[in-house]
């Protein structure tokens, strides 16, 4: 049997380990603590049907280790744990060929000045600015969200906060200088209000109303703020009404 037919399964479940650790600590786990628990947890390799059967017997799906900080924050919200922490965004692959995605890239580029204004106004560190950029690999391209550490007129210093298998040669915390023209998207999720995230909006537009509502809940987004463009530039952001069933 080839290794490609096997998937990693945490024993005990990663979510159970995180719940126990946070309960023992008595306050929310930090990002570093979550990743440390993931990295030192016991795992075994199982065929997917057996892994699915294990999830069914547990009564829940375990956290995706590639996006464990994000998924853990989503689980905490469902469990009603306080305070809520910013989950950031999931690492994702994107199809860049269609016109809607190209338009999303263009909107992200046009609104970079607004992104910088939001970064500069974040003096209390209430939210985590993210940029999405392309990594060119031998077997294709992967688009990854990075956490912005610094911003200047030429671009952004940003770092990896999750590590997908395709980037096995990198480490969490590795930093990169992302030039303005290398930014394919940016986003800030501030108390359920999403600034930017144009590729997410393009993907959301392909879903039906029920799927959109599920995505909004998963992202923790209540309002998508749109920048209003005019000849002299953008003026302000306006929320759009979310479809609900």
Q: What does this entry look like structurally?
A:
It is built from 8 helices and 10 strands. With 245 residues, the protein is of the alpha+beta class. It has 2 domains: 3-78, no CATH class; 99-240, no CATH class. A hairpin with a 2-residue loop joins strand 7 (183-190) and strand 8 (193-196).
- Backbone shape: globular
User: What gyration radius follows from the Cα positions, in whole Å?
Assistant: 19 Å
Low-confidence residue ranges: 230-236, 238-245
Average per-residue pLDDT, rounded, comes to 82
Count of distinct structural domains: 2
Query: First CA to last CA: what distance?
Result: 45 Å
SSE run? EHHEHHHHEEEEEEHHEE
């Amino acid at each position: 049997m080839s290794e490609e037919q096997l998937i990693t399964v945490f024993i005990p479940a990663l979510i159970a380990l995180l719940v126990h650790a946070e309960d023992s600590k008595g306050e929310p786990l930090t990002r570093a603590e979550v990743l440390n628990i993931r990295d030192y947890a016991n795992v075994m390799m199982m065929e997917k049907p057996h892994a699915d059967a294990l999830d069914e017997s547990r009564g829940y799906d375990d956290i995706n280790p590639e996006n464990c900080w994000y998924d853990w924050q989503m689980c905490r919200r469902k469990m009603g744990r306080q305070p809520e922490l910013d989950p950031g965004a999931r690492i994702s692959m994107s199809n860049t060929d269609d016109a809607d995605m190209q338009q999303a890239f263009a909107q992200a580029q046009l609104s970079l000045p607004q992104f910088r204004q939001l970064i500069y106004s974040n003096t209390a560190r209430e939210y985590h600015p993210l940029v999405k950029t392309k990594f060119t690999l031998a077997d294709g391209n992967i688009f990854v969200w990075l956490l912005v550490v610094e911003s200047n007129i030429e671009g952004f210093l940003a770092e990896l906060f999750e590590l997908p298998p395709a980037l096995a040669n990198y480490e969490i915390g590795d930093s990169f200088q992302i030039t303005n023209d290398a930014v394919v998207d940016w986003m800030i999720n501030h108390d359920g209000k999403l600034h930017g995230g144009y590729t997410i909006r393009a993907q959301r537009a392909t879903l039906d109303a029920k799927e959109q509502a599920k995505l909004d809940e998963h992202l923790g987004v209540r309002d998508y703020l749109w920048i209003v463009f005019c000849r002299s530039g953008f003026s302000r952001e306006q929320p759009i009404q979310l479809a609900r069933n």
